[in-house]
Amino acid sequence: MIASIYEAHRAADRAWLVQIALAFPMEWPGELRHTQRATGEPGTRLRAAYERFTETRDKWEAAHAALDPEVREVLPLKPR
């Protein structure tokens, strides 16, 4: 179960970066993701990808927090 939550979050993270790159082709997605512009306008694919990312992030963070502390040490909170 936790693996599927983690994989869903990783996939959402990658999909959001792709949408950032498509929306802002002349800028670096990895840096732009930390700005308000990367959330997109309502109704856009960028906003949908951002909302999916935040949804899966919240689920992943909750699942990660519920893990045994020893397991949390070897399983990263942030996707790689």
Largest sheet: none
Number of DSSP helical runs: 4
Number of strands: 0
What ranges have pLDDT less than 50 throughout 5 or more consecutive residues? none
Percentage beta strand:
under 5%
Secondary-structure content class: mainly alpha
Over the alpha carbons, how many angstroms does the gyration radius reach?
Answer: 14 Å
Distance between the termini: 19 Å
Q: What order do the helices and strands follow?
A: HHHH
Shape: elongated
How many domains?
1
Mean pLDDT, as a whole number? 90
Question: What helical percentage do the residues reach?
Answer: 55-70%
Give your account of this protein's structure.
With 80 residues, this protein is mainly α. The protein has one domain. Helices cover 66% and strands 0% of the residues. Helix 1 runs antiparallel to helix 3 (45-65). The longest helix is centred in the first third of the chain and has 22 residues, at 2-23. The relative contact order is 0.19. The model has no long low-confidence stretch (mean pLDDT 90).
